[in-house]
Amino acid sequence: MSIVSTVQPDLRRSKINWQKVLVIFLFAVVPLFLLILFTYIPFGKMIQFSFHNMSYTKDKGFVGFDNYLKIFTKPEYVDAMLLSLYYMAGAVVQLALALFFASVLSLERLRGSGIYKAVLFFPFLVNGIAIGYIFKYFFTHGFVLDTVLQAIGIPLEKLPYWLRDQSVNNWSLVFTSVWKYCGQNMVLFIGAIASIDPTLYEAATIDGANRWQQFKAIILPGIKTVFMLNLILSITGSLSAFEPAYVVGSMGANGTATFFIKIHQMAHVSQKVGQACAMAMVLMALILLFTVLQRLFFRYVMKDSESTFNAKANKAKALW
Amino acid sequence: MKKILSLVLAVCLMLGLASFASAEETLPTFDQIVLGENTDLTAKIHFAYHRTDIADKLNGYVEAFRQIYPNVEIEYELITDYAENALMRVGNTDWTIMGIPTVQKDELSKYFVPLGSLETLSGLYNFMSSWSFDGVCYGIPSTGNANGVLYNKRIFAEAGVTELPKTPDEFIAALKAVKEKTDAIPLYTNYAAGWTMGAWDAYIGVAATGKDTYMNQELAHAKDPFADQGNGTGPYAVYKILYDATAEGLIEDDYTTTDWEGCKPMLNNGQIASMVLGSWAFTQMRDAEGGEHPEDVGYMAFPISIDGKQYAPAGGDYNFAINVQASYEEKLASMYYLKWLTHESGFAYSEGGVPIDKSGEYPDLYAAFDGIDMLSDADSLPGEETLLNEMNAESELNFNAGGNTKVQEIIEHAFNHDKTFDEIMADWNAAWSDAQAALNVEVK
Fold it and tell me: Which of A66, A71, A164 to mutate to test the interface with B (most CBs of B within 10 A)?
């Protein structure tokens, strides 16, 4: 009896295991094959190309780090990289706005909050190219934005040319980017806030905490992970900003060419594929660097504040 | 297996015989074709072409042709992504006539019927050299384009410009007069579309130097090609017009938000006085939706004179060619149809192009081109076919190859006063000579 019972499950298990392995293998092999074919092999090729002087049809051979050196010796590329600072500043504003909307929509029992969420999220669903065309008209001198500003009493002569003046045009482009991605960040925040235990608010209210205190003590720590994720995504997104400058800024004209646009021009207009690959590698390295820096920042700076808090608490305990 | 092999063999033999048979009846050359002969010709022609916008017009041509050759059936296949599609199908038998895609010149005889010797045909027709190899022509251009400047006749008249400007100074003076005396934008740049600004590159060869060899043979070897020639000619003079017009406030107010579709009726209605674009743009401006004064749209040569003479760059559009694998009757019928298209149909005229037939008169739009020599760029020298491309890529200036950014920058610097024109041209010269050094190009 005992023999039978031990053998049977074993048999069954080995049979199921074999099926499982087959199924797992079959399901995994297709996506893995696609992933390797369309991501890792091209990526390897990109690394290889970045050391070659080549166009689409001709490879003039290995040139070592020449392509990389050219990026850092030409001031126009460094300028293009510095343009990301505009988008990073925009990312901070964007996160603050998204957090504000998310908290208000989660904390207050607003009538029709679903509609507000939908309205704020909608821009993210619109195609980036379409947004570009919308904002091109929006910023044209004397068109949408200027009409609105005139209606509140600012004369047209005092308004800048939003896309022509190089002192404001990059801010205009950053605005379109914030407009598009704010809703997406907000929805992620709302999701995170929804996962916080609602009884905490209740308890806080009973203790007499106001909205700001609730936000600081309950929401902010509760969504820390999602906040970090959003921050990293926004900052890395700023480094590779493309659509606003390409569509609204007429393909990066008038000092709006971001590093990504420079890569596009290098590869598709000048057809220097090797050089473009090197630029793409540099961009990737920058994004990695910023991601790591942010993680380190959160791990040590934030931890520091926590540990000083703990130290203070210990001190207090000791004193007690 | 044996069966298949023998079948293949049989087919090969038959094909061989067929080609042998047709080779016996030699085709006349294109210049020997006389319309109205051989009217009992029976054939079916499949015509692959890219002009999806004028399907009705093309069918109209077919009907008119069948008045003379009732037994010739012609079917147009209009293809949107023509360049790629045709390139893939060029070796097939499913077409009889097509516009020549970008094949290698030494492969022309593999795909297309020879139309005659370059020497004979170029005496009769314009722009024949572009698809010829070893002195034999394989294609005849559908129509030709010339490059000049679009302008509004009424606005120029209102501004008191009675004679068309022939030099950069005269042109700038005319634009100033337009600004003073009318409400029109003197020079519309079409900055935002990009490629419309790249159109300026078309003038640095023939129009600026009067030499048909400049663009494809000299530019790559030239020492400091963008330096001031001192006499209002050369590439320097071309771009200087744009810089000066911008610096003097003679272009549109908010250049970063120009609108290509919107500019068409604006030129037509006199809100824009001039635009620098090829002649293909003329019919678009004239027939623009919302344009109420098609008669005001004019075309003039680019305002640069070399020793008192103006030159206009011109070149052929897509070339028609006949499938070498077609039957003898199909080839002959195709010859007659192409002859009719280029001589009788008025195709070039209705497209606002330069007629291919040298005896043909130029359409009205080129009235201002009287006394102006039209030249098409000579081919690059043997062994240097790709040199200009390489120089373009290495210098990142990309003349006539998508280098729109550099032309846009001229406007930006002129408007912001942060760089003089000479500084810009010095940068270009430096980029050009660096590229020459990198590619070991002999500087002449």
Answer: A164
